[in-house]
Design brief:
This protein is of the alpha/beta class and 323 residues long. The protein contains twelve helices and 13 strands. The strands form four sheets. It has a five-stranded mixed beta sheet with strand order 10-9-11-8-12, with helices on both faces. A three-stranded parallel beta sheet has the order 5-1-6. The protein has a three-stranded antiparallel beta sheet with strand order 2-3-4, covered by helices on one side. Helix 7 links the parallel strand 9 and strand 10. The N and C termini lie far apart (97 Å).
Length: 323
């Protein structure tokens, strides 16, 4: 019985062995006919903006056509402005850094609301407009060091009461109840701001915060604001400080107006570029830092805002990065 059992077991084992051999023999040709697939090739790394500029010999600079004094069109329709001039200096530095004999500039008009989108999508390499660097905007674009200490400023007439100027400058006096007297003085003033502008929203918020009964007039544009101030229809005109300073250089009634040497809000303006372009940003920041540290910024600044005072020059010295 044991032998019979052994023979039966041997028979089944033989059949199993034969089946395995047959299977292996059947699979071997298939393996030879279908070699193992090769690993998928890694996608090529995207070409950096700086590399593309070097290979093409062209750079695309974005500008906002109606963001004076940062960027606008001159009488011939060509881009000009404070940020545009700075981008021209940066372009010269890029040309030298890449050892290019020529570097053509393609000026691309961009709407103010689309500045971050333009660099995100690669429509422009560098945005030479009025981009504000904030924590939220830094999620959409990279920025150079600050090119202008932007924010809300104010204009008054030169013959405005010294007391009003002191209150706007927050110069506290030794008089008792200084704050109460200041609120009373401000409540008697007539303010103005461009309708729908950040200055208008800020002014309304401050009037509510300090419970001022002052009048806030809404003007259609900056020219109307200047005219109202010159004609004594209002006492203080609030607006973007850069625009106010630029207007003093070109407005016919500027001789009768005076800027308040104070920023009521802080909105640093910078050149914008696409996220991840650290090699390009390094050239931009190095160029601007050299311009600030050597005092070369005075020439560009004076062209649009008048002669910079010591406070302004100190700002640019602090903004410059050391090598």
């Amino acid at each position: 019985m044991q032998r019979a059992g052994w023979v039966a077991l041997s028979g089944r084992g033989a059949r199993v062995a034969a089946l395995v051999i047959a299977t292996l023999a059947f699979q071997a040709p298939l393996s030879a006919q279908k070699p193992a697939p090769k690993p998928a090739a890694k996608p090529a790394a995207p070409t950096s903006t700086l590399t593309r500029i070097k290979e093409s010999g062209r750079i695309r600079l974005g500008f906002v056509a109606d963001a004076r004094p940062y960027s606008f069109k001159d009488g011939s329709g060509n881009p000009t402005g404070f940020a545009v001039d700075l981008c021209g200096t940066v372009t010269d530095a890029i040309k030298g850094e890449l050892a290019l004999s020529t570097l053509a500039i393609d000026w691309v008009p961009v709407a103010a609301a689309d500045q971050y989108k333009a660099v995100q999508q690669g429509d422009v390499d560098l945005m030479c407009g009025s981009a504000r660097q904030t924590l939220s905007s830094r999620t959409q674009a990279a920025f150079s060091i600050t090119i202008f200490p932007g924010g809300i400023g104010a204009l008054v007439r030169r013959d405005a009461p010294a007391r009003l100027k002191d209150v706007l400058l927050q110069r506290r006096s030794a008089q008792p109840n200084w704050r109460g007297n200041a609120v009373q003085l401000l409540s008697a003033q007539r303010f103005s701001a461009v309708k729908g502008s950040p200055a208008e929203a800020w002014g309304l918020a401050k009037m509510k915060e300090f419970q001022l009964t002052a009048t806030l007039l809404h003007v259609d544009n900056y020219d109307a604001g200047f005219k109202g101030l010159v004609n004594r229809q209002v006492d203080v005109f609030f607006g973007d400080r850069a625009i106010l300073l630029d207007a003093l250089q070109h407005n016919l009634g500027a001789k009768d107006l005076q800027p308040i040497d104070r920023l009521f809000t802080f909105e640093p303006v910078a050149l914008a570029l696409g996220l991840g372009n650290e090699d390009l940003r390094l050239i931009v920041d190095r160029t601007l830092s050299k311009l600030y540290a050597t005092g070369g910024i005075k020439t560009v600044y004076s062209k649009y805002f008048g002669t910079p005072d010591e406070t302004t020059l100190l700002f640019y010295r602090w903004a410059a990065l050391p090598d």
